[in-house]
Write a structure and sequence with these properties.
Number of strands: 17
Number of helices: 14
CATH class of the domain at 8-322: Alpha Beta
Length: 491
């Protein structure tokens, strides 16, 4: 996650300086939750002396609150035993992912009758037929990337009921669904930190959060711990060393997986908290897939983060990470016709050259694509041609490739067909996350490589040098503007 939409700035300022009455007087209904959860011990912020008892009737008995109470009953550590993880982001993985949204897909811009969840539900069949194994949904909680009530799934992306329909539709099409989970930070419901559903006190906020510099909040209790990483000015940074935050996070993720139906996680802004928390939360929720947004082009830093998400020697259940190193070098190589940027002493230059089983490759995503609601429909031919060259690379190379929704669905039937063809070639050849790559050429004007799958070898080229051919015994599988791919049977 990076800074969101420009209109957010004014809202943040008004939130910072809004008058605060009954700051954390959240009326958590401790006895009610205790009863609902069959006396499971749950720590809740106690209501302040001036809290108004009648507050409870309207605010605390919403569907979100009922869902929270039920989730505690079902998924608290005292009553829930997670199963072992059976992950697909491992060596030899054949999976291909689709990012199922973009910045301008939500209800602020796109007014689909049933919201974006309805669009996803209606598209599930085509997503499955196009060869995608995973689809990444946007953050489901109200507030999206700036979440407030975790259990309020009526959001800018649509209604909770339609979200569940979309998840079920994807499952019916053979596609597993990855939830975008925002754990680094959180907003209150009426001010910066009146956290509801789950209810938390101000002590879950790190001691160096910028909110404590505001006079209205300066005297409130806070965590004794400093932030473990990068802060988020738009929300309160949470202390994941806090036992209540840890337990409620586990409960929420188990509910999202086992009640709502999500299969895996895309962790937002993982620079904000220590990677060992990812191991704890994955162990607690048993996802089939886990990927972190470590937004950095330095592959050593990305690899270090991955390493920190699994303390075991084999690192089988380490989280994967988006391969920003490959993305930045790939786009620079294509735009500049400088393919030496893709070669590191005979290995791919990004994370896929070091740890391909944990590298999720991509051409663009919602953060890297231009922030212009008209850009998708107005993108130049050169821009589109360069992006399909990017897909020719990531869909023939190791790693777990991820396709961006508007490239698949918003640039016309011919462009969609090119992506579908590339996915089909990858699947037919048996290219996996750890397939071997031989870089034949990486110079100005030409990138050429041979990638060995389980069923076939692929030869591919990119660039303005049109003369390169792989030699006899190869069959042209597809070609386009400045790219071509050939296949050869292993038999």
């Amino acid at each position: 996650m990076v800074i969101r939409k420009t209109w957010l700035a004014a809202a943040l300022l008004s939130f910072y300086f809004a008058p605060v009455s009954a700051l954390t007087q959240t009326s958590p209904a401790s006895e009610e939750l205790k009863a609902e959860t069959k006396n499971i011990a749950v720590a809740l912020p106690e209501p302040a002396a001036k809290a108004i008892a009648s507050d409870r009737s309207a605010a605390e008995h919403t569907r979100a609150r009922a869902d929270w109470f039920k989730a505690v009953q079902l998924y608290h550590d005292n009553v829930f035993q997670p199963r072992p993880q059976l992950r697909v982001d491992v060596a030899g993985s054949p999976v291909v992912m689709l990012q199922g949204f973009h910045w301008y897909a939500d209800n602020y811009w796109n007014h689909a009758p049933q919201g974006w969840w309805g669009v996803l539900a209606q598209s599930a069949g085509e997503v499955g037929r196009s060869g995608f194994d995973l689809v990444w949904f946007p953050p489901a909680s109200n507030g999206s990337y700036y979440p407030n009530e975790w259990y309020d799934l009526d959001s800018q992306w649509g209604a909770k009921d339609v979200l569940v329909q979309a998840v079920n539709a994807m499952h019916g099409a053979g596609v597993k669904v990855v939830a975008d989970i925002v754990l680094n930070h959180r907003n209150g419901t009426t001010n910066w930190l009146d956290f509801k559903n789950p209810d938390w006190p101000s002590t879950v906020i790190v001691k160096d959060d910028e909110v404590w510099g505001q006079p209205a909040y300066a005297g409130m209790p806070r965590s004794p711990n400093y932030d473990e990483g990068q802060g988020e000015v738009g929300c309160r940074d949470l202390d994941h060393r806090d036992a209540q935050v840890q337990q409620d996070t586990k409960i929420f993720m188990r509910w999202m997986k086992n009640t709502i139906g999500f299969d895996g996680w895309r962790y937002d802004m993982v620079k904000g908290f220590a990677p060992y928390h990812i191991q704890d939360y994955n162990d607690a929720s048993s996802p089939v897939f886990s990927v972190g947004e470590y937004y950095d082009g330095n592959r050593q830093l990305i690899a270090d983060w991955i390493d920190g998400t699994d303390s075991s020697s084999g690192k089988v259940n380490a989280s994967s990470a988006f391969d920003y190193a490959t993305r930045f070098s790939l786009i620079a190589a294509i735009e500049g016709d400088r393919y030496e940027l893709l070669n590191d002493s005979g290995r791919p230059s990004g994370l896929i050259g070091w740890w391909p089983s944990k590298a999720v490759t991509f051409v663009e995503n919602h953060d890297t694509s231009p922030r212009d609601p008209n850009f998708i429909k107005n993108a130049s031919k050169d821009y589109r041609d360069q992006r399909i060259m990017g897909y020719a690379y990531i869909l023939t190379h190791p790693g777990i490739p991820c396709v961006f929704w508007p490239h698949m669905f918003d640039w016309g039937a011919d462009y969609k067909k090119q992506i579908q063809t590339l996915v089909a070639i990858r699947k037919s050849a048996g290219i996996t996350s750890t397939s071997a790559v031989q870089i034949v050429s990486a110079t100005n004007g030409l990138y050429a490589a041979v990638v060995t799958g389980k069923n076939e070898r692929l030869a591919m080229k990119l660039g303005t040098n049109m003369s390169w051919q792989p030699g006899p015994g190869w069959e042209l599988a597809t070609s386009g503007e400045k790219y071509a791919i050939w296949t050869q049977s292993l038999k």
